[in-house]
DNA sequence: GTGACTTTGTGCATCGGTTCACAAAAGGAT
DNA sequence: ATCCTTTTGTGAACCGATGCACAAAGTCAC
C-alpha cells in the first residue's frame, strides 16, 4: 500500500518555509490595495520568485487555490500566517543595547507581524534604566527571571561577539529554544535549540566577491536575492 | 578526451562563497591566538561546519593544504581574502539614516574587512549635515555625483520600503552593480546587478515557525545556522 | 630509506530543491 | 450540456550541494 497523496503532510521543506514570509508580505500589500484574488503568476512576480516554485510551495500547505481563478488573498494570508505561527503573538527579548540593539528595538517590522518586544537587556550600568523605544533597559542579571516571568520564547542576541556564547548558554538554560544571533560568532547549542544568524559583514563580503568577478572579466552576470 | 582535473577552475559554487567569510573569521581568530597551522577538522569545528565540506570548499580555490599537516593559517587567510576580493578596499555608501542606517554606519565589522564607508545619505533636511560615526550625512540629491566622485561600488539600502526601489534605480543608473538591501521590498534590477537582501522580520518568522512546531508536538529537533 | 601515521583532496552515492510541462479542475459562454 | 479558456497541483527530469569513505601524499621517527 502506498501513502495516498499528502494533502496536509507535516514536514514543509526548509526552503519553502524561508519563502512563506515573502509571500505573506506580498499578499499583505495586495490586501491593502483591495485585491481579492491573485494568480500564482502575479503573486510570484510580486514576491520575486518563479510561479512553479510558488505553486509547489503553497501546495505543501494544502490546496488553497481555485483552478482557473487563483488564490483568495485574505484566505491565503490567514493560512500562511497560521502555518508560520503568526496568529499567536510572540514575546521577544533583545540582549545588547548597542547601535544594533537600539535599531532592532525600534524596528517596526517586528511588531507588525505578531512579535512583541517584551524586554531589553544590557550589561552596562550606564545604559540600564534608559528608555529605548518605550522599553526600560534591564540589567543582564535579571535575564533568567524576566524571561520566565514574561514568557519570552525568542531571544535576539545583539551583544559583542565575546559575550554572545555566555548569554546564549544562559537563555538556553532558561528554556529558550529559538535564537536570532547578530554577533559574529558560531554559537554552540544543544539539540533542539534553533539558531539563525545574521552577519552583516558576510553579506558584504559575498557582494565583494561577485563585484570583483565583474571587474575582472565582464562575462558573468549574477542576480540573486 | 576528458578535462584534466580542474585545479583553479573558475566558477566557485555559490554555497562555497557564502561560507568563505565564515572560514576567514575563524582563521583570523586563530592567527590572533598565534596558531600557525590548522587541520580541516579543527577549522571546521571553529566555523561550525563539517570537515568534508570544508575541504571540498577549500579545494575549489586550489590545493593549499599539506597532507598529514593541515593548512597554514596565514597563507589560507591570504588566499581566501584574495578570492573574496578583500585585498582591495571597497568604498561603500549607506542610504537612509534611520535607526538601522545609523547602526550600520557605526558597525565595526565592516571596516575591519576592507570595507570603507565613503558616504551616508538621507532625504530628511533635518538630518543632512549631521555627523554619524564621523561621517557627514549628505543629501540624497548628491547621490549620483558623490557615488561617482568617490568611486562607490557597493550601496547599502536602509531606506523606508517605499523609497527603496527609486533609490535603487538611481544608484544602478549611476553605475553601481552591488546592492545590499535592508528594506522589506523585492527590488527589480537589470541583469548584471547583484542584490542581496537582509530582512530581519523574515528571520523571526522562520524562528516562529519552528518554535510553533516544537510546542505543538515535541518530536522534531532542528538546528541550522 | 622504510614503515607507521596523519590528513588532504576527491569520486561517488545521495538528498533536497528547482524547473518543466501537462493532466485535472474550475468557470464562463453559448 | 458541451466546449473553450484559464490556472492550479504535481509527476518527473534535472541540478547543485552534502557527506561518506578512501586512495594519494605528505611528515616523522628510526
Keywords:
homodimer, 225 residues, alpha/beta, Arc Repressor Mutant, subunit A, Rossmann fold, seven-stranded mixed sheet, three-stranded antiparallel sheet, 9 helices, 10 strands, globular, disordered N terminus, DNA-binding
Outline the secondary-structure elements:
The structure is a homodimer of 225-residue chains.
Chain A: H1 14-32, E1 37-38, H2 40-47, H3 51-59, E2 65-66, E3 70-72, H4 73-84, E4 90-95, H5 99-105, H6 108-111, E5 115-122, E6 131-132, E7 135-139, H7 143-149, E8 154-157, H8 161-173, E9 178-181, E10 194-197, H9 200-216
Parallel strand pairs in A: 4-5, 4-8, 5-7, 8-9, 9-10
Antiparallel strand pairs in A: 1-3, 2-3, 6-7
Helix pairs in contact in A: 1-2, 1-4, 2-3
Chain A binds a DNA duplex (30 and 30 nucleotides) through residues 5, 13-16, 39-41, 50, 52-53, 55-56, 58-59, 63, 65-71.
Q: Can you tell me about this structure?
A:
Two copies of one chain form a homodimer. Chain A has nine helices and ten strands. Chain A has 225 residues and is α/β, with parallel strands linked by helices. Chain A has two domains: 14-84, Arc Repressor Mutant, subunit A; 90-202, 3-Layer(aba) Sandwich (Rossmann fold), CATH 3.40.50.720. Chain A has a seven-stranded mixed beta sheet with strand order 6-7-5-4-8-9-10, sandwiched between helices. A three-stranded antiparallel beta sheet of chain A has the order 1-3-2. The longest helix of chain A is centred in the N-terminal third of the chain and has 19 residues, at 14-32. Chain A is globular, with a radius of gyration of 21 Å. Mean pLDDT of chain A is 92; it is low at 1-9 and 218-224. Chains A and B meet through helix 1, helix 5, strand 9, strand 10 and helix 9 of A and helix 1, helix 5, strand 9, strand 10 and helix 9 of B. Chain A binds a DNA duplex (30 and 30 nucleotides) through residues 5, 13-16, 39-41, 50, 52-53, 55-56, 58-59, 63, 65-71.
